[in-house]
Amino acid sequence: MKYLDEFTDPEVAARLFAEIARATTRHWSIMEICGGQTHAIIRHGIDQLLPEEIELIHGPGCPVCVTPVGMIDKALEIARQAEVIFCSFGDMLRVPGTCGDLLQVRGEGGDVRIVYSPLDAVRLAEEHPDKQVVFFAIGFETTAPANAMAVHQAHRLGIANFSVLVSHVLVPPAIEAILASPANRVDAFLAAGHVCSVMGTWQYAPLVGRHRVPIVVTGFEPLDVLEGIRRAVGQLEGGRAELDNAYPRVVSDGGNVAAQRMIDDVFEVCDRRWRGIGEIPASGWRLSAAYRGFDAESRFDVSAIDAPESSHCRSGEILQGLLRPNQCPAFGTECTPRTPLGATMVSSEGACAAYYHYRRLEPPARDGARVG
Predict the structure, then answer these.
(1) Residue 329 has what pLDDT?
(2) Under DSSP, is residue 150 helix (H, G, I), strand (E, B) or coil?
(3) In 10 A of CB 282, how many CB atoms?
(4) Nearest by Cα to 149 from 160, 137, 134, 133
(5) C-beta atoms surrounding 278 within 10 Å
(6) What is the 3-state secondary structure (H, E, C) of 82-129?
(7) Where are the domains of the chain?
(8) Complete DSSP assignment for 155-168
(9) CA 95, CA 274: separation in Å to the nearest integer?
């Protein structure tokens, strides 16, 4: 268990915990959307220091974790081709598909490269006109502007040997799906500040209105998360349901308008499958008609590739907040960061990775063998 002296300002943390404790009169379930928030909660023991009535549910807020097995298999198929330079951020290399991972493909001789920006992949395409350069474009709304800019740049420069394998997912439809589920028991949400820094907060107001559920936008530092919890509890105890921006130093109502214009030009909304959850309508982006020629799925004819989820990995239940990582029978034994069964153990923002690094020697969560 972590202690208050691990916070950057222990006095502020103590005050916030005390205010939450005084305000809390009944059980409330609050879901944090982002994996970065999950790591802050688990690393600093925020959930353990809160009143027992406050339950924090870990949501599907890790883009690596929600990328479906079928999309990983498409990446593997493309990366194994001799004429391809396959580019990805490093956290995707060890995400397992049904036939290995990208790191294994590289070990077998495939040209798989870690890049730090999608524009790095565009430059590689310029430098290697004899190769097909593919960038694995995954993520929530946060990474979409840079990915859109890379496609726009390749189009403007006439770089025909560049393409993207797109697996973008959107947060508001995921919240809608959670709230519409018969198994839903979330009373309030902590929305991800980095997503809202791009898209603004305006998309969340209709969700609050339709479902009468508080949504508090917050950051990722422990004190930011704690302040978000305090505001959410205040609304719940007061019988209110409002959209509250607790991260105004980064987030505005309108967001980054220039980034949104770039996204709207390059991408269009589509249905998207989420790993362990299934298809959520209008929850993703694909390339718009003007940029469809940069679509790696079509270029390499891998659109038909699909794959079932592993029966041994219960990350789908974890991503839906139905199971905590250390309640999975494989956690810490069959499934570790060195031998992962699913993406939630691989990603630096995955809930399973957070529990493995900070909670693996502790017994399962206090709320029983299964959440809900």
Answers:
(1) 85
(2) helix
(3) 13
(4) 137
(5) 12
(6) CCEEEEECHHHCCCCECCECHHHHHHCCCEEEECCCHHHHHHHHHHCC
(7) 315-359
(8) HHHT-TTEEEEEEE
(9) 14
Here the tokens at position 353 are: 């990775």
| pLDDT tens-digit map of 230-253 | 999 999 999 999 999 999 999 999
| Identity of residue 359 | R
Of 372, 51, 3, the C-alpha closest to 233 is 51
The band of 1, judged by pLDDT with boundaries at 50, 70 and 90, is: very low
Give the model's pLDDT for residue 291. Answer: 98
Distance CA(372)–CA(155), nearest Å, equals 49
Q: Which of 7, 354, 4, 55 is nearest to 229 (CA)?
A: 55
Q: Which residue, 259, 307, 265, is CA-closest to 76?
A: 307
CA nearest to 263, candidates 282, 288, 283, 281: 288
Which of 21, 315, 54, 280 has its CA nearest to residue 188? Answer: 54
Closest CA to 147 of 232, 267, 51, 45: 267
pTM confidence score: 0.88
Judge whether residue 152 has pLDDT over 80: yes
**Lookup: tokens for 331:** 């956690």
Q: Please give the backbone phi and psi of residue 365, each rounded to the nearest 5 degrees, phi first.
A: -55, 155
Q: Dig out the tokens for 23 from the structure.
A: 């305000």
Closest CA to 274 of 158, 170, 165, 198: 170
